[in-house]
Amino acid sequence: MTVKEFRLPDVGEGVAEGELVSWLVAPGDRVEEDQPVAEVETDKALVEVPSSYDGVVEELFVEEGEVVPVGDVIISFRVGGADGASADAESGDTKPTDAEPDDSEPTSVEAESGSPSRRTFAPPSVRRLARELGVDLSAVDGSGPGGRVDERDVREHADAEGSDPDEDDATDPKPVEMDTGDRKSAVSKRGSAEGAGATTAAEPGSGPEPAGRDRTLSTPATRKLANDLGVDLDDVPTDETREGEAFVAEEHVRAYAEASARPDDEAAPPAGEGGSGVETEPTPADPATDAPGETIPYRGVRRTIGERMEQSKFTAPHVTHHDTAEVDALVAARERLKPRAAEVGVKLTYLPFVMKAVLAGLREYPILNSELREEAEEIVLKDEYHFGVAVATDAGLMVPVIEDVDEKGLFELAAEVSDLASRARDRSLAPEELRGSTFTLTNFGAIGGEYATPIINYPETAVLGLGAVEKRPVVRERSGDGTGHEVVPASTLPLSLSIDHRVVDGAVAAEFANVVMDHLEEPLLLLNE
Amino acid sequence: MVVGDISTGTEVLVIGAGPGGYVAAIRAAQKGLDVTLVEKDAYGGACLNRGCIPSKALITASGLAHEAGTAEEMGIHADPAVDLARMIEWKEGVVDRLTGGVEKLCKANGVNLIEGAASFVDDQTVRVAHGGDGQGSESIEFEHAIVATGSRPVEIPGFSFADEHVWNSAAALSAESVPDRLVVGGGGYIGMELATVYAKLGADVTVVEMLEDVLDPYEDDVKRVVRKRAEDLGIEFSFGEGATGWSEASDGGYLVHTETEAGEESTYPADRVLVAVGREPVTDGLDLERAGIETDDRGFIETDDRTRSAVEHVHAVGDVAGEPMLAHAASKEGIVAAETIAGEPAALDQRAIPAAVFTDPEIGTVGMTETDAEEAGFDVAVGEMPFNASGRALTTGHTDGFVRIVADADEGFVLGAQIVGPEASELIAEVGLAIEMGATLEDVAATVHTHPTLSEAVMEAAENAQGQAIHTLNR
């Protein structure tokens, strides 16, 4: 009988972490191999994580809604012989011996495992590096045999934390704070005599609940500070532990002393004007998080979009070319084909026509169907035509991919777009349906508007934005006498083409746009495609 | 000669030039800090002057004499005559060479050396009183201080080290002659080492120990090996008794009085009595309270994992900062103190501090025992290799003892080792490295060890823990 830990697997291309949306099992449940145990929202999809073991769920290490890096332990199973009793005893009363498990820090290997043999093994040079980088070794996943932590693991962990600083709040020993300032503060601590005030204010009822432990670990400096501030260390709330004992750090003591010294008004919700407010209304914002406005977590799909946009816009110098196609003929063609499409259950939009027109343009100007590989110093011209189609969903922008546009008919494209779009909104796309595009279309005109400055779906070279097809005034030669011009209403399609100016220049972009427009204005040409 | 009070300033003030203090001073100087090292007695501290080094010199010399006289089995017939005075002189030479080296190293690294006794004036100033004929004193202002004042032997009621026949360890290491009868109060490692020295030099030695065995913290099978060898050397043991005092005997010698917990009294005739019941930190005269530092109930300065006391810019290292009272622990702490002051992220993060006892045979330990590991919750794998199965041990004539290696059964990580036997103090280093590096039994077992050496026993023990030993039966 052993306890097996299960780490969040890599569920998709380049996915570094996922939000654990919901648990499908609970401790004590029997699971079979491949049975889904959790739903995880990754970059762009909601996926089910299957178990690798037959066994009984021992412990869940991650709360629903938490963001978990790939490779972190999320669940453990008891597998093998069913001697549950010893397993319970083991996980129940033994604690890691030399970690500093912070119970609120589920990424800590130590805290998760409940198995004492999970002490962190790392050579002295690596331990020093961890201190230099402010990395809590117990939170690092070792890549060596048996989880031994090496230098690379620490550096990678530090990098990961750099982009996600709120993950690590229990690093110890702390990064160096030094020198005379430090010394001065130590000295003044001894002299500061606000202690008396703090003591009286720390009476029960006025401040935070005293923790009232029997034993508390802390450094001598912290003990001294507590003494100076008139705080009983055993009363200071903490969620840090050392060797299984509660551990109190200086900041805990200060926070507790401050909170204790503060009068009641902070603890109580702001009273309403009348007598009724306090009991009936929900308590306004928690004083601790009372910041103006509302806070929305920046993670999951939102953060992925943000990171992609950042990468694209900060990497590729964008230039956007705008033009307008006169599409009366296209509108007419679509009207004629619509009933035929409906007969085979397809809703025909303008998008398949645009895709074919773009295809024509790309065939003539393959440089726009390319990818710049900076490191290799080469531009790869793609011989496939896989179009990403931007879809707005509740969770944010998704870009499912229509493969091989050159091999599909209009109806086929229409059906596929509609299927992918609706599944994008359900969040039921597979990761592979979201990757591999060579050119992207964004149809913001479906909502309204004329022109935009679309951001390239990096590392592609171009993106085409479509405005709304509407009747707009256009200037034409006056019919008949050929002597002047007139303004007439015509269906037009505004186009916004963004290109990576590293790869291609504006002139080529304009020429490409002309080919696309040509095919939109004379849809019969699309028969070539 | 300085008369009166002059005032100077330093970035780092180190008090005490033992293995904690001088190492801290040199490292701090290497980090570009302005360092002043104050020593009131002798550079090198207790370790070099009255402890590790002199005792090892006498252990080696007495061992050599004894071995030469007891090697008939190897066909050597000798009756060595020991000139203790000459032996002590040789020992002093070794000590002088080392302490002189410490002084030179400090100077070469730019450490400012001051002789005198330091006491705190406040948390930024000490006064150093110069001993001898320079009655002057000087004030030194510091930004950071490192207290490294060490420890001294504990006196017990009824025995005063001022009496000529009452020895502490320092006196035992500077004796002019070998006493006929030596009573050793205390069967700890210092008592056992010196009891062995004098037994080998021909004294009748009796060890009186309050507990029921010698070498208290060690495991029973480790103790047994050392005790049996001591008994073979003629050392007698009285357990469960504590020395309470002495009286003069009619033969010109003394009687050492002991008492059991139940109150039963005994006496042991002696010419000298060595009191070796432990060491206590030296903080008197330092006026620590003026710097705002308190000591715990045993007199130690409490420190954190970066050697800082409650007053953060005052560090404490070595014996004065508490257990383990070992020179190499002091040196490590000294380095951490210096690097912390220099703004580096140093910390006392070692997994294990090895320890050695230079009895016959030696004991070397590092990390966890089997019991420690079990209590820590590990699934434990243990492997042993007795030295009587080691070819090299047989050729030295010393086959008592064994190597035991303790590991985590799941992943094979080495957690500790206990070695009792020839050169155990040297052999333990390999296991220390294994522990710090997170090496596994496999790593140790698969490392090729020189044949024929004692170090093969470590490899064999690792193999034994894996159930794959060649030269022992796997348990």
From TrEMBL, chain A:
Record key words, sorted: Acyltransferase, Lipoyl, Transferase
Biased segments, Basic and acidic residues type: 148-160, 171-185, 239-265
Domain Lipoyl-binding per the UniProt entry, residue ranges: 3-78
Domain Peripheral subunit-binding (PSBD): 121-158
Biased composition (Low complexity): 193-208, 279-295
Compositionally biased spans, kind Acidic residues: 161-170
Any GO molecular function: acyltransferase activity
Disordered as annotated region, ranges: 81-297
CDD domains, A to Z: lipoyl_domain (cd06849)
Entry cofactors: (R)-lipoate
InterPro entries documented for this protein: 2-oxoacid_DH_actylTfrase, 2-oxoacid_DH_E2_comp, Biotin_lipoyl, CAT-like_dom_sf, E3-bd_dom_sf, PSBD, Single_hybrid_motif
Listed EC numbers: 2.3.1.-
Pfam family, one: E3_binding
SUPFAM superfamilies: CoA-dependent acyltransferases, Peripheral subunit-binding domain of 2-oxo acid dehydrogenase complex, Single hybrid motif
Family listed: Belongs to the 2-oxoacid dehydrogenase family.
PANTHER family: DIHYDROLIPOAMIDE ACETYLTRANSFERASE COMPONENT OF PYRUVATE DEHYDROGENASE COMPLEX, LIPOAMIDE ACYLTRANSFERASE COMPONENT OF BRANCHED-CHAIN ALPHA-KETO ACID DEHYDROGENASE COMPLEX, MITOCHONDRIAL
Protein name: Dihydrolipoamide acetyltransferase family protein
Organism encoding this protein: Halorubrum rubrum
UniProtKB/TrEMBL annotation, chain B:
Catalyzed reactions per annotation: N(6)-[(R)-dihydrolipoyl]-L-lysyl-[protein] + NAD(+) = N(6)-[(R)-lipoyl]-L-lysyl-[protein] + NADH + H(+)
Additional information: The active site is a redox-active disulfide bond.
Family annotation (InterPro entries): Class-I_Pyr_Nuc-Dis_Oxidored (IPR050151), FAD/NAD-bd_sf (IPR036188), FAD/NAD-binding_dom (IPR023753), FAD/NAD-linked_Rdtase_dimer_sf (IPR016156), Lipoamide_DH (IPR006258), Pyr_nuc-diS_OxRdtase (IPR001100), Pyr_nucl-diS_OxRdtase_dimer (IPR004099), Pyr_OxRdtase_I_AS (IPR012999)
NCBIfam families, alphabetized: lipoamide_DH
Cofactor note: Binds 1 FAD per subunit.
Record SUPFAM superfamilies: FAD/NAD(P)-binding domain (SSF51905), FAD/NAD-linked reductases, dimerisation (C-terminal) domain (SSF55424)
Organism: Halorubrum rubrum
This protein's name: Dihydrolipoyl dehydrogenase
Record-annotated FAD/NAD(P)-binding domain positions: 11-334
GO molecular function terms noted in the UniProt entry: dihydrolipoyl dehydrogenase (NADH) activity
Cofactor list: FAD
UniProt domain Pyridine nucleotide-disulphide oxidoreductase dimerisation: residue ranges: 353-462
EC number: 1.8.1.4
PROSITE patterns named among the record's database cross-references: PYRIDINE_REDOX_1
Family designation: Belongs to the class-I pyridine nucleotide-disulfide oxidoreductase family.
UniProt entry keywords in alphabetical sequence: Disulfide bond, FAD, Flavoprotein, NAD, Oxidoreductase, Redox-active center
